[in-house]
């Protein structure tokens, strides 16, 4: 019960903040919240379950593109389009995850990297369905029961997404499944010996986090009211990995801190380094791995313990 | 038929480049177990070395090539010392250096993009423009040069691993690090050398392909994927696997672009599809490791 109250309080704070901001800051805030939602999901996959995958942004894209195509090209009703979009993400994720259980360690990363690149190729070549390199634009979120979700009200929807993602992942993390994931990450042989079905655990974690990324993508589709290939490129998949590493892999708070820091850093850095913030990111990541393997949250813990 | 031969020679040349990048992976992967995604960026650095020394300073080709490769060796060596060694020393999990090198991909790329303008930079041909013909088979000077140099490199590496004591030391490290260390093999030197050599081989690939593609700061990741695909197709067990895989990949690519009835944009997806198929169906590659 307390967790429900806490979740509701977090939602009210996160959503309420949007009403205090102007149009521009609302836009920045929305994207920040989306990155946080993505990083939370990716942290579960990479930090807690130990799978390095670069397909997370492809699933974000599958979610975004599928909702737009289902709604505005196939003219499905909204709830059906959402359900079909999620089903599509789950099906794709299963199709990737089940054969991938044969791959060890970093080979999964390269297979999913290829998948992420292939997704961009398909988007670029998709013709009228995906809109090619220009993507799809000029659509609007349909009204619900006469409600018109615009401006800060839509930000509230994203806040709901973040709180919901967090709630699902924390609950999973504290269940037997979370412990199984950590066991699979730390020592798959020992986990198998303890009766954990390693392959099934990996498949479920991958499918679940990919579906969460797909849902975040559906929400994203109505942030800018345009979807195009560069948004879902492999560079952003790298950035997501960097966020989790810098923040502290395996910790939900770390994912939030990493996402917030790496998303906001360019705004402060751009007067100093211009377009070369990516160089700062690269150095940050290498430094984090070398000097602070538990990320910023690890540094914070050490300071707090003193 | 003429058309096919032309295509085959061109494909062999790009296959050799993929093979060199694959060899760059392999030289690091065997003694350390690290999949080093930075090899693509090393190739990019080799290409930019060629641009600076051969195009801007107009050094003679052999001298410029040697200097560019020496520079990539130093970069590979330094990367191992600064990024990989500390992690191995504190016995961090194997994923840590892999991710650190992934971070280095961004560091290399963005450093180059900070120094040079974002346009493709020209790199000269080794022997200028021109064609060499052997009967029905013919190719540009550059294609023949690429094929010749690559064959020399692969024969050299093969002889090194099969015929020299130092090569056996590398082999021993790849089989069992602890046992090798107990036998008196200097692990840290082997690791540093493997990074240096990997960087040279990858840098050579970049330098050789650059006259056709130009040096560009974004050229690394595609080359890294193609090189890795070559390695996966050929198998990591044998040195010549990378070359075989590279040749097959390039041939498949070129045949798809030329003859397959699909839009050329989709043909870019060819190496990606091949990579996924091989990873899933035949992760050991075509060539089996020798017992």
Gap from first CA to last CA of chain B = 41 Å
How many E strands of chain B? 2
Unreliable stretches covering 5 or more consecutive residues of chain B: none
Count of separate DSSP helical elements of chain B: 12
Mean pLDDT of chain A: 91
Biggest sheet details of chain B: 2 strands, antiparallel
- Quote the beta fraction of chain B: under 5%
CATH topology of chain B: ABC transporter involved in vitamin B12 uptake, BtuC
CATH architecture of chain B: Orthogonal Bundle
Low-confidence stretches of chain A: none
Question: What's the quaternary structure here?
Answer: heterodimer
**Helical residues, percent of chain A:** over 70%
* Count of domain modules of chain B: 1
Secondary-structure element order of chain A, N to C: HHHHHEHHHHEHHHH
Written account of the structure:
The complex is a heterodimer of chains A (306) and B (291). Chain A has helices spanning 2-19, 23-48, 56-72, 78-100, 106-125, 152-173, 176-186, 188-193, 198-220, 234-247, 252-273, 277-291, 295-305; strands spanning 136-137, 226-227. Chain A has 306 residues and is mostly helical. Chain A has two domains: 2-233, no CATH class; 234-306. In chain A, helix 2 packs across helix 11 (252-273). The model of chain A has no long low-confidence stretch (mean pLDDT 91). Chain B has 291 residues and is mainly alpha-helical. In chain B, 75% of the residues lie in helices and 3% in strands. In chain B, helix 1 runs antiparallel to helix 8, helix 1 packs across helix 9 and helix 2 packs across helix 9. The termini of chain B are far apart. The mean pLDDT of chain B is 89. The chains are: A mainly alpha (306), B mainly alpha (291). Chain A binds chain B through residues 50, 52, 99-100, 102-103, 105-107, 110-111, 113-115, 117-118, 121-122, 124-125, 234, 238, 241-242, 245, 276, 278-279, 281-283, 285-286, 289-290, 293, and chain B through 35, 83, 86-87, 92, 94-96, 98-100, 102-107, 109-111, 113-114, 221, 225, 228-229, 263, 265-266, 268-269, 271-273, 275-276, 279-280, 283.
């Amino acid at each position: 019960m307390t967790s429900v109250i806490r979740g509701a309080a977090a939602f009210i704070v996160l959503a309420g903040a949007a009403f205090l901001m102007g149009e521009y800051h609302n836009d920045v805030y929305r994207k920040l919240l989306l990155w946080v939602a993505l990083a939370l999901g990716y942290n579960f996959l990479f930090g807690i379950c130990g799978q390095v995958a670069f397909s997370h942004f492809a699933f974000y894209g599958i979610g975004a593109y599928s909702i737009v195509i289902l709604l505005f090209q196939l003219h499905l009703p909204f709830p059906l389009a959402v359900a079909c979009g999620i089903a599509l993400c789950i099906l794709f994720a299963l199709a990737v995850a089940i054969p991938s259980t044969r791959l060890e360690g970093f080979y999964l990363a390269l297979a999913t990297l290829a998948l992420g690149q292939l997704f961009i190729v398909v988007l670029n070549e998709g013709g009228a369905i995906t809109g090619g390199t220009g993507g799809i634009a000029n659509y609007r979120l349909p009204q619900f029961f006469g409600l018109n979700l615009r401006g800060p009200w839509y930000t509230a929807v994203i806040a709901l997404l973040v709180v919901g993602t967090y709630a699902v992942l924390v609950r999973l993390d504290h269940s037997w499944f979370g412990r199984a994931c950590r066991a699979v990450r730390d020592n798959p042989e020992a986990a198998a010996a303890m009766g954990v079905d390693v392959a099934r655990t990996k498949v479920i974690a991958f499918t679940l986090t990919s579906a969460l990324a797909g849902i975040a993508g559906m929400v994203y589709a109505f942030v800018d009211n345009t979807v195009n290939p560069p948004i879902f490129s492999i560079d952003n998949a790298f950035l997501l990995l960097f966020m989790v590493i810098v923040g502290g892999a395996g910790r939900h708070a770390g994912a939030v801190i990493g996402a917030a820091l790496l998303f906001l850093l360019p705004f402060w850095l751009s007067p100093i380094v211009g377009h070369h913030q990516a160089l700062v990111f690269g150095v940050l990541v290498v430094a984090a791995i070398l000097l602070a393997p538990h990320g910023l949250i690890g540094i914070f813990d050490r300071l707090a313990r003193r | 038929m003429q058309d096919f031969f032309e295509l085959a020679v061109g494909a062999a040349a790009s296959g050799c480049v993929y093979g060199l990048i694959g060899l760059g992976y392999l030289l690091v992967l065997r003694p350390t177990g690290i999949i080093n995604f930075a090899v693509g960026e090393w190739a990019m650095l080799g290409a930019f070395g060629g641009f600076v020394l051969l195009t801007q300073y107009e050094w003679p080709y052999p001298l410029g090539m040697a200097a560019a490769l020496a520079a990539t060796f130093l970069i590979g060596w330094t990367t191992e010392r600064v990024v990989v060694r500390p992690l191995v020393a504190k016995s961090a999990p194997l994923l840590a250096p892999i991710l650190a090198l992934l971070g280095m991909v961004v560091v290399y790329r963005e450093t180059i993009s900070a120094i040079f303008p974002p346009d493709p930079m020209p790199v000269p041909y080794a022997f200028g423009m021109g064609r060499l013909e052997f009967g029905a088979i013919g190719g540009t000077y550059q294609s023949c040069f690429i094929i010749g140099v690559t064959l020399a490199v692969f024969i050299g590496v093969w002889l090194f691993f099969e015929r020299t004591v130092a090569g056996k030391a590398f082999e021993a490290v790849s089989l069992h690090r602890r046992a090798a260390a107990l036998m008196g093999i200097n692990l840290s030197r082997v690791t540093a050398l493997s990074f240096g050599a990997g960087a040279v081989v990858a840098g050579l690939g970049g330098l050789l392909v650059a006259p056709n593609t130009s040096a560009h700061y974004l050229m690394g990741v595609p080359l890294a994927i193609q090189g890795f695909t070559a390695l996966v197709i050929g198998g990591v067990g044998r040195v010549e696997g990378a070359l075989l895989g590279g040749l097959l990949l390039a041939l498949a690519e070129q045949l798809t672009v030329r003859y397959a009835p699909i839009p050329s944009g989709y043909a870019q997806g060819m190496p990606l599809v091949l990579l996924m198929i091989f990873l899933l169906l035949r992760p050991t590659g075509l060539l089996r490791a020798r017992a």
